[in-house]
Design brief:
The chain is α+β, with helices and mostly antiparallel strands and about 375 residues long. It is about 55% helix and about 20% strand.
Length: about 375
């Protein structure tokens, strides 16, 4: 029995199994060698021990530890686990560094730039070679900053232009008032001439102020005025008929033609679009400077847009001034502005209205010798 005990103990320790030896009818426990790893994840087998003539001598209960548990405790597995943990840490560190350089740092730079935006100062644009969303964000930010700067400059220029345009008639009025105050021996006729000049300059100031107010009002109305579907052909023919009559009363002539059909529509604010035509025809008459002025109105469709074109055979505009015609307060000739009137806001207002409708406007030399203005508006879907 001692040899059996020694052998079973050795087997139990080497194979990490628990062994219990019972007599043949399981009524007594003869030997017990518990599992060195405890009873976790173990399962038991019964092995009969027989003599040479198959006579049952003992019953042997063997408790084995599961293979998974043994694998988890093996040195190779633990080394592999440490290696995988190291790889995971390296990947995590690399991803963290990548996100910091590619995402966090650019966003922090953009956030800092946003806090320091100065409307009146055109800073150096943010630069990025990236073609992804971060690159697009930088591009949109630069565009926004540039628009803010341009808007600020336009405000400054607008105030400067208003001050200049109002200063001229005010200076004249002040001069006439001083003459009336200092020269006591003026005749009634001379006094009346000065009064008439003061009244004329005052009316010019009122006209300027009304023009500034109308321009501001139009810009605000663009955001609130509703749009409706309008048939292109009917709109064009109504406008052509109205201005044909108006120009005829001034001894001028309007020629018009179009290629529109009855099933083509625009989604517009008709009141605003009519204001565009009104400004274009008014400029043609005011600055055409020809006794036999001829105005040409045409319309056509190209692609998904409707094009309207107003031309004249008047004096025209120099090449260097064509690109500036739609700037606020721009006039080709200041002396002509003083003589003919106007504030340089008409074509700028036209540009705002057309672009608000999703279109474009341009100026070029007309084949008839004068100025041509063409603008487009997308067809209604």
């Amino acid at each position: 029995m001692q040899k059996i005990a020694t052998y079973l103990k050795q087997v139990s320790q080497e194979r990490h199994i628990g062994i219990k030896l019972f007599n043949d009818d399981l009524s007594h426990t003869l030997l017990v060698f518990p599992n060195p790893n405890g009873s976790r994840s173990s399962f038991g087998n019964w092995i009969p021990v027989r003599a040479a003539k198959h006579r049952l001598l003992f019953q042997l209960e063997v408790n084995r530890v599961g293979k998974l548990y043994l694998t988890l405790l093996s040195p190779a597995f633990i080394k592999g686990l440490y290696f995988l943990l190291f790889i995971f840490c390296m990947v995590f560190f690399t991803l963290t560094l990548h996100f910091h350089i590619k995402i966090t740092k650019p966003l922090q730079l953009l956030s800092t730039r946003l806090k320091n935006v100065k409307i009146g100062n055109s800073s150096v644009s943010l630069y990025s070679k990236r073609k992804d969303e971060i690159g697009e964000l930088y591009q949109y930010f630069n565009q926004m900053e540039q628009r803010l700067y341009q808007a600020h400059q336009e405000q400054i220029n607008m105030i400067a232009a208003m001050a200049h345009d109002l200063k001229t008639p005010l200076t004249s009025i002040n001069g006439f008032v001083e003459l009336l105050a200092l020269q006591k021996n003026l005749s009634e006729k001379e006094k009346q001439e000065y009064y008439d000049l003061i009244a004329k300059k005052s009316r010019h100031m009122v006209e300027l102020i009304n023009s500034f107010s109308a321009f501001t009002r139009d810009e605000l109305e663009l955001e609130t005025h509703p749009r409706e579907r309008v048939e292109v052909k009917k709109l064009f023919e109504r406008i052509a008929a109205e201005y044909e009559t108006e120009l005829s009363s001034l001894n001028f002539r309007l020629h018009w033609n179009h290629s529109f059909k009855g099933n083509q529509y625009l989604c517009i604010n008709e009141h605003m679009i009519r204001r565009v035509f009104g400004n274009l025809f008014s400029n043609a008459v005011r600055y055409g400077e020809k006794p036999d002025l001829q105005v040409y109105l045409s319309g056509f469709i190209q692609g998904n847009s409707v094009y309207f074109q107003v031309e004249d055979n008047g004096q025209g505009v120099p090449d260097q001034d064509l690109a500036s015609l739609f700037m606020k307060f721009f006039t080709v000739d200041k002396s002509r502005q003083t003589k003919k009137g106007g504030t340089g806001l008409g074509l700028s207002s036209c540009k705002s209205i057309v672009e608000h409708h999703g279109g474009q406007i341009e100026a070029f030399h007309s084949e008839y010798g004068g100025l041509a203005i063409r603008f487009s508006i997308p067809l209604a879907r």
